[in-house]
Write a structure and sequence with these properties.
Blueprint: H1 2-27, H2 29-35, H3 41-60, H4 63-73, H5 77-113, H6 123-146, H7 150-174, H8 178-200, H9 211-221, H10 225-245, H11 248-261, H12 265-281, H13 288-312, H14 314-322, H15 334-350, H16 352-356, H17 360-385, H18 387-412, H19 419-441, H20 447-464, H21 470-479
Helix pairs in contact: 1-7, 1-12, 3-5, 3-6, 3-10, 3-11, 4-5, 4-6, 4-9, 5-6, 6-7, 6-8, 7-8, 10-11, 10-17, 10-18, 11-15, 12-15, 13-15, 13-19, 13-20, 15-18, 17-18, 19-20
Amino acid sequence: MNHLKRLFSDSAAFAVAMMGNKLAALLLVPIYTRYLKGDGQLAEWGLTNTITLILTYLCILGTDAAMAFYFYDAKDKKERGIYFTNAVIFSAGMCVIFTILVLVGGAPLAELIYKGKEEYTLLLPVAFLATLGAIVIQHILGYARYSRRVWLFNIFSMAYVIGSNLLSVYFLVFKHAGVMGIFYGQLIGQVGVALILVWIFRKEFVLQFSRSHLSHLIKYGAPLLPTLISFWVMTSAGRQILYYLNSPHSADIYEAVTRIASFIVLITAPFQLAWRPFSMSIKEREDAPEVFSLVGRALLIVGTIAIMCLTFVMDPIYQLIIGRPDLSEGYLYVWTLSLGTLFNVLHTVFGVGLLIKKETKLISRGFLIAACVYLIGNLVLVPVFHIWGAVSMTLIAYLIVIIWVYIQNQKVYPVNFRFRSVTIYLAVYLSLLMGITWVQANQIENPWIYYALALVVMITTIFATRLFSVKYLYQIGNFLPKLGGKR
């Protein structure tokens, strides 16, 4: 019980930085949207972020995840330091190589990626150097997390995110440096914090290159790369395809929508942090499958109803935050990306048995299949349906993941999620939201009548399909106190 309490307390403590960083990033959205006014600038900011994200995956190559294992597997402090040092040097060295390559590529590469905009010649080198700082920070803060240095982790996690963003705002607002200014701020902030952390952790480094230790790290971490790339495709490729196959303006709208839709992360992130330790702590209980079923269906209902209610009032919220008349139609698409985020969280519940039985490769395979469908679907639909093509493929891709993990989960750890009821519920839900979108897009008078009708239909569907009932609330209430007892 003490270990479980420690697990939850550590999760809550480390969550402070994550939630603080996400909130800070969201609060800065109105500034970025108002000062990145040039056609395509908002999209080019997002496009550069997606490039640096894939760069991070390629440079780290899963060695950060491997350190979570070898930190405890190392026979002594010196060997732990050897693993740590080799992970940092390898990832930083890879990033330096990529930075040199884009620097050599120079103007031709920038013109190819940014549709001939000459002012972006140095954008990728600057962004890649900023990423170098971020990679070093990620490794060192990971080491701090494994060492349970909670406050050091939280302080520097927030310092580098908030600090670099404030510097970016300075270059953007006061120096009018546009997209380049954002990454100048990232470069100064992230490299600065990285140097401070290197100094603080200087005694933890063991300057000894070890091919065997590095090989262990890569062999453990590299198999994670296909899953990371699949996730990157599903979260990043849509905006790039819009930028190249549709227009920079459409990509601007999509970027704004993505930023607003990410608000749902503030709701889902605490659940994600708590779910893994919670599910593992009760997996031996006889009633665990029933609890998993209840949690999955409750999360689906609460999450979807919350997104529907937000959709009713999204127009004024979106216009207030974005503050750009040329991007005003974006509020129509927010619910699709928000729902995609919810589906991403739901797959961990519908696939809980795969986590318990250590069949995580099946989850990775599901993401790989969904990423391929997402990519092909975008290439086909975006030229025809523009933004709707991109956002609809987000929903389709995550639905594929949910269906895949559910089917695989039932083979190794059957849980009665009432999937037939879930399917009917989602079909009704999606139909109603498409109807609400049509009402909003056509500015039908008295839309609240349609909103009220939609809520009544959804509540009726919940009980008509027996997806949930009042008695389940009593079951959850009776179960929770038992968590403090014997297992």
